[in-house]
Amino acid sequence: MWPTARSSTCILVQRALSAPTARRLGSTAAAASVATARTRTLVPQLRPISKVYQPTTPALVGRLRSAQSFSTTAAAAMFSTKTAAICIIGDEILSGKTQDTNTNWLAKQLFDLGVDLKRVEVIPDDEADIIETVTRMSRTYNYVFTSGGIGPTHDDITYASIAKAFSCTLEVHRPTLEQMALISPKMMLVSPLHTDEDRAAAEREPATIVAPSHTDPSSMVAMRMTPARLRMAQLPYPSTAHFTPGLWVPLCVVNGNVHILPGIPRLFQAMLAHYLPDLANRDGLGTEPFYRRAINTNRGEGDIADALTAIQDHYTADGIKIGSYPTFGAFKQGGYRVCVTVVGRNVPLVDEVAQAIAVAIDGRQEPLQTPKH
């Protein structure tokens, strides 16, 4: 059963300013003044569905906005928020041949770590596009993740393009070759080394691995890549490479924050699942995660829009984000009509906003979604 709407058109939101907020306001008197204004702030509530909803008046919206105690810029400074961007590279994505699933998976991981994903772009296998996109993202966001374009074929140009973007050279990465020889020896061209001179000559070749034969460990062989496969071991220099157990493909980091990954979802996810915990420990991620609470309602978006706008305006400065998502077919099958979500870093505040919304839109709250990390 859905909650029954109250007869009044407004609810009273009781809020108390925290000590840090009071300090930001500059004085006890100022804090008390804003606390009083917030306590008296009215948030619009819908009438029962059988009655006509009276939308929020401009005067009420003005009161809500004037009650905010500090700007969104100040609110952003409350948290040492890390930001991220994702660059999906591949003509096959843009043509519809392949569906991108890496963005959705990584977005969930970043959300749980409290990293604010600000931008996602899908671009073609084009050098100019790659250079422009990654340099702009690297300047703007703390972390950049690229997906795709590091295979052995002619259209795999991500390594070379990113190297050019940051004035790096493209060089054979010996540890990657060694991992290839160890994990996927069938990818290598194997030549026996009959003499010490043969071995010495092979060891001088930068793209050759000298190792015991897999069939006869007492003899040495030279393991080389075909020119096409060698492309996958030519990384931008300088850079850092992070290996995942069982995989020879490295997660290559250029310019300190550009993370180059393969487009194959299985590899993309395995490599980041191994890497992200180390990144979180290094940069202190996950200490200020995001929390989400959903409120489901049988009212239409057009009926609840004014109420949501007023509540969002009131809480924007606190870093709260409210989203509204119609479910369409689910409602016809006995489900709810609209799902409203509240996202923030402060659990009591998220709960407070969710309760205000639930009352205002005749909604039912779902359990709090907490980080998995």
From TrEMBL:
Pfam families assigned to the protein according to its UniProt record, in alphabetical order: FLAD1_M (PF24102), MoCF_biosynth (PF00994)
Listed SMART domains: MoCF_biosynth
Domain MoaB/Mog, residue spans: 85-282
Entry's Gene Ontology molecular function annotations: FAD diphosphatase activity
Any GO BP annotation: flavin-containing compound metabolic process
Matches recorded under InterPro entries: FLAD1_M, MoaB/Mog-like_dom_sf, MoaB/Mog_dom
Name this polypeptide is given: Molybdenum cofactor synthesis domain-containing protein
